[in-house]
Design brief:
Blueprint lengths: L10 H25 L25 H7 L4 H4 L14 H8 L7 H15 L20 H8 L4 H5 L17 H11 L11
Length: 195
Amino acid sequence: MRKLPVAGIGIAALIGLLASTRPARAQQSQKQEADSIVAPRLSAADSATLEGPRQPIFFRHDIHAGQYKIQCQYCHYSVGVASEPGIPSMQTCMGCHLAIGGSDSTHRAEIKKLRDAWREQRPVEWVRIHSLAKHAHFPHMRHVKAMGPNACGTCHGDVARMPQVYRVNNVNNMGFCISCHVERKVNRDCTACHY
């Protein structure tokens, strides 16, 4: 049998290695399935009955962040380096949706809206959900650095379980921010947020 080098080992050795790890991978896969969130079937018409504003495209955070476990920072890529987390670019969305067309007619219809906007070079006019008062500053990158990649849920709630994102906490209530700072024993000086 001809041996092809794959990272310094032959194909035969690689097949043997993969076969020996198959039971461990099957266990890991079963654990991941048990930990997974299965998003309910909903259509864009259902979004009118959900909390939060309707969006031009029924973007399902419970599917992307919940079921498929895509980290917030994958789409909101500037959150670790900027004050604002930013709205994901169309290019980020299309990085997947050039190939992924949706598993049912409801998903395909919403992805078609995204693809049409991409083709027409027309931005999607998302409805803003979270906004901070102009006199206060919330540098996202500092909070993500201090609290880790799962910090988002502290303010935004469990977005991975939300079919349509809505405001969970009143981030414009200074008491909300101060109680978080008190709990974590960090700076409560006025100039930390008001500058």
